[in-house]
Amino acid sequence: MNRIFTCILFILLIAGFSGCTGQGKSFVPSIPGYDASKKTTLVLDKDLLEISGMFWLPNNTIAAINDEEGKVFLVDPEDGDLQVRKFGKKRDYEDIVKLDTFYFVLESNGNIHRVPVNVKHVEDEFEFHRKKKIEFESLYIDPNNQLILLSKEQRESKKGVLAYSFNPVTLQFSDTPVYTIRWKDIRNELKNNNAEFKPSAAAIHPIKRTLFIVASVGKAMLETSLDGDVIAAYQLNPDQFPQPEGLTFAPNGDMYISNEGVDGKGTILKFPYSHPK
User: Fold this and answer.
1) Which single residue of 36, 88, 139, 234 could bond 95 by disulfide (Cβ 3.0 to 4.6 Å)?
2) What is the spatial order of strands in the sheet that 198-204 belongs to?
3) Rg for the chain (alpha carbons), in Å?
């Protein structure tokens, strides 16, 4: 029965994605406040072919990272112009945030690299205390200015996605998860008991004050409370999101999702926000 249900769901999703003009719907169901027909696509420079994380800066610039080079890329979201600041060696970098005068860059093993905003070739690295193998791709700042890391792959618990914190003042990680997003809740909201959801980026919506999490593996997006309670789930159109790896919001709620270049160049898709009526 599970296989039959999964097949029916897949057919319905394909019908939903292909039911509009062009490439079809971006999200199924539609995300309240976002008219996907108004989206724009920014094609990125080849240096960001493997863009793996983004963060909106106050000067209306996007700080980005790629998953191989120790460089912070400052991207103009209108025309894609780049400024580059090198900070470290080649590693598997996955996400980036900025707090005060530092960028904080997440490595896939959970290590945090603290990079001064105005100083080149300088970084401090803080090692994640992993007892069992955990892989991370998502980093965001919570309302208490704690950095939150979301697990992509982990063997520590089968209950769900784990969230650990990093204190940028004490420079310490939490000993245990600060919350868990339960697999049961994720799959219930996706209406698929076999659904995969491996977070690749996360950011707090500046107006709704809820957390949005995108997953390249599973091609879905979750909206949760700041404690990890699932509010809604949305399937992503794979034609528009071949490999979604970055997520950030402008202060007015405009949403930006980046794709690594699979068969071409990396892209950033912008979805303008308007308050739902």
Assistant:
1) 139
2) 27-28, 230-236, 220-224, 211-217, 198-204
3) 18
Tokens of 6: 């999964």
Question: Could you read off the pLDDT of 129-163 as tens digits, one per residue?
Answer: 876 689 999 999 999 999 999 999 877 667 899 99
CATH 2.40.50.840, applies to 32-271: no
Are the CB atoms for 96 and 104 separated by under 8 Å?
yes
pLDDT band at 23 (very low <50, low <70, confident <90, very high): low
For 253, counting Cβ atoms within 10 Å of its Cβ (0-12 exposed, 13-18 middle, 19+ buried), the class is: middle
CA dist 33 and 197 (Å) reads: 23
**Residue ranges of domains in the chain:** 32-271
Structure tokens at 165: 């914190």
Which pTM was predicted?
0.90
Amino acid at 166: F
* Separation of alpha carbons 2 and 212, rounded Å: 28
Average pLDDT over residues 33-42: 94
Instruction: Quote the CA–CA distance of 53 and 64 in Å, as a whole number.
Output: 6
- 245 dihedral zone (left: phi>0; alpha: psi -120 to 50; beta): alpha
